[in-house]
Design goal:
Enzyme class: transferase
Order of helices and strands: EHEHHEHEHEHEHHEHEEHEH
Number of helices: 11
Cofactor: [4Fe-4S] cluster
Number of strands: 10
CATH superfamily: Aldolase class I
Strand content: 5-15%
Distance between the termini: 44 Å
EC number: 2.8.1.8
Family: Belongs to the radical SAM superfamily. Lipoyl synthase family.
Helix content: 25-40%
Keywords: 4Fe-4S, Cytoplasm, Iron, Iron-sulfur, Metal-binding, S-adenosyl-L-methionine, Transferase
Strand order of the largest sheet: 2-3-4-5-6-7-8-10
CATH class: Alpha Beta
Number of domains: 1
Structural class: alpha/beta
Amino acid sequence: MDVVQPLFVISQRSQSRKSMVVKPEWLRVKAPQWQRVGSVKETLRDLGLNTVCEEASCPNIGECFNIGTATFLIMGPACTRACPYCDIDFEKKPQPLDPTEPDRLAIAVQRLGLKHVVITSVNRDDLPDGGASQFVRCIEQIRQVMPQTTIEVLIPDLCGNWSALAIILSARPDVLNHNTETVPRLYKRTRPQGEYQRTLELFRQTRAIAPWTYTKSGLMVGLGETSAEILEVMQDLRQVDCDILTIGQYLQPSQKHLGVQAFIHPDQFEQWRIEGENMGFLQVVSSPLTRSSYHAEQVQVLMKRFPRSPLVLNP
């Protein structure tokens, strides 16, 4: 299939920019059990922690909070980049790193009893190492209090600072995640401060530095890409030995963000899943509501099926 088959193409509608777009049935989420959601939020507020679930307006927040999971957002909620699809604040000035954050994060993981934790961050291009040292401190503190918890880090591209990447990998996270986000043709509009080839190089470097780690990337669709372009990106990711892929529908956070060009039918997501598994990905999670860290704990099943022994890091 060369062209994505959407429910309908949003860009062709003759509506004003402020008109509400009716989402298809498959993008509706169940109402969460707010008692459990409130409990998770209380823990986060008590410890002064941020989550990408809240900052990026994730549609799965209710489901994830209901089962006691969250993707922690470290180094503050203010980003140094202004990607027009993202709801994280870029207008605030980034603050100095908080030395107590790793301790507070570890306490939250312990209180919530997490078996798998995802740690991500805003882009901190203002820091010499892009925040790599803070990732390491967070990993080390979690391992002290919850040694059996598997750890996934969802990192920025670090501006191509591979020494900083090596610092993160020296803490031996179980999963190294970095989102490709979209196809090369749409990078200038969607990720103006990102570079497609730099993203691919990050995975090459990760495999060279820490061949034991599981690598993961994510794509969002509905921004005007074709299915052929998605398949080409998937092939590129396999060429750099990416293990896990997530594909989900882009949803416009507000009127000031990039608009949705198409709502993609679930059948197309299933086709991408099949294609990805045939390419050799160890795991492909592909559905309209899939997000990069949605059901991330399922990686533990993969780790049992495809075990890798940690190796001494290359110098």
